[in-house]
Amino acid sequence: MSSTYDVLVLGGSGVDTIVHVPELPLPYADSYMIRPGIETRAGQTGDFVALGLTSLGLSTHHLDMIGDDPQGDLVRAFHRDHGIDFTEVPLPGGTKRAVNLVGPDGRRLSLYDDSRSRESDRLPEDLVRELAGVSRHAHVSITHPCVHALPLLHEAGLTISTDLHDWDGRNPYHEPFAYGADVVFVSSAALADPERTMRRVLERGRAQVVVATAGAEGSYLLTADGGPVHVPPVAPRGPVVDSNGAGDAFASGFLFGRLAGEDPRRCALYGAIAGAHACTVPATGCDAIDRTALLGEAVAFTGTPEGAGTGA
Question: Where would I find the Carbohydrate kinase PfkB domain in this sequence (predicted)?
């Protein structure tokens, strides 16, 4: 085990079955003939954040619970094949899985199997403390075992980030994550008033920056110093084929900038570039932008060479 990790990723491992459908929403029919077909691969939110960070050159360790099953074997192979350090804890209910319906325009609808989780699921405290002790930052997925790890990460003095995904701003389940992280990502899709929710997170929690992603509209930043600030989207370099993993890629790019000491707007630009790249990768693929490509696109987008990432 490396003596120092840039980022410890907690939770978010699993397997997705990708189903390509002719349109979303999918009208009812007895059956559909679909191409390119149905394929199962490892990769859920924590897996893709770890992949994105590793591709950007950050030393990353992923900790999560998975099952002793064929799906768990896919998760193990994912980390092994991409050179990501992975510590697994047995998950009695079996490896988490989902079905993603993907339309021709790249939009997706995810169906998560919630039967794998148990109230008793926990990440061992000693293990969390050990890994936190050799890490600079922790990115915490909003899975049940991870909420119990938050106090241990605070105790270790780590900065923390989390992605609330499609939080509606009201569901209390998300609040420990929202108020316990220094960097908070959230999709604006289900927020009736994104700015109000972002300000509440700043006021009630420990967040220094809140980022609301808005897909093709870009993202919005809010810090204690003011805002919100709109960061425009970045046009993908290729055809948009799938939005799976775009939010995870955005988080990876943003954290790359933050750990390099960049200002929030530059971090959001990095996130936008990484997210745009992810939209050009088929749902069955596992590819993330690397540091050279990201920094090159940032220079092309802004015309300035700042942000070499030397602090990461």
Answer: 186-284
